[in-house]
Amino acid sequence: LMKAYLDNPTTPIMKKGKVAVVGGGNSALEDALYLSRLAAKVYLIHRRDSFRASKIYVDALAQSENIEFLANSSVSELIADERVTGIRLSDGRELEINGLFVSIGRKPASEIFLGQLDLDEGGYVIADESTRTNIAGVYAVGDVRTKPLRQVVTAVGDGAVAVHFAEEYLSGM
Fold first, then answer.
1. pTM of this prediction exceeds 0.85
2. pLDDT for 54
3. Spatial CB neighbours of 24, under 8 Å, sequence gap ≥ 6
4. SS3 34
């Protein structure tokens, strides 16, 4: 979604715009760091006073000159005409922005598997490192699977592992 927005030639943030990112985890900090290379100013809005993100992202954030961290804050209102022009924060402050990116929480698309596959408390499919689930011949890959890291590279690795074990399963090994 962010890439589609940024690839749009009418997007008004390139080098002169201001954007806000809401969140405090790895995705939010990664988004803020990426946007800091494109926008004049990035506001990182988080409801707590510290991040849940990995140290590598927090350290990189501290070195960025155009990211402003707004702790203990949340967005209470969008200000818009035909597009977003600003936001009002929970403390009453208003910020002029050209774009808003929400990077909070995750919800796996696993509803289709309810009652069939074992899911953890967050709704992620439980699968071992071979990507096998509780049903023979069913493999879970990518961000729907319970795992500690959710990145494209881990999802691709899951796919390669699943293909190997699915081939074994189909050949009767």
1. no
2. 85
3. 46, 47, 48, 50, 51, 52, 53, 104
4. helix
